[in-house]
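REQUEST FORM: STRUCTURE PREDICTION
Request ID: SP-0412
Submitted by: Lab K.M.
Chain count: 1
Length (residues): 118
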Amino acid sequence: MKKMIVFFAAGMVLGLGFTAWNVKGIEASEVQRGKDIYENKCQMCHGPKGNGNGPAAAAFNPKPASFTDPKFWKQKDINKIITNTIEHGHGMMPPMGLNPDQIKAVMDYIAHAFKPGS
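STATUS: Completed
RESULT:
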């Protein structure tokens, strides 16, 4: 009976471990998807470090947003601002032509990679 309980407990622990691993794997793949989109669509202007100093940024007035600036993240309705900017453009930034899932992936990535304190 003790062996059965030990095997059951071990199975539960292993099962929970695999469940957590799969969830983290999904989250990690979504962040990676956002990173891939960011590198393809955003990095040229916003830079590899998200600070608004990409290779094309010198030609912009105003400069591209810095995702590393705490003030950027304190704006009211920041998620709506980001979504609207990606969908419709703003200033010198053109619309990016991303679907809602791609926009969410990019938003998840920039928050994960560049937001101070994350």
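NOTES: The helical segments are 2-41, 43-46, 70-73, 78-88, 100-114.
Reviewed by: T.R.
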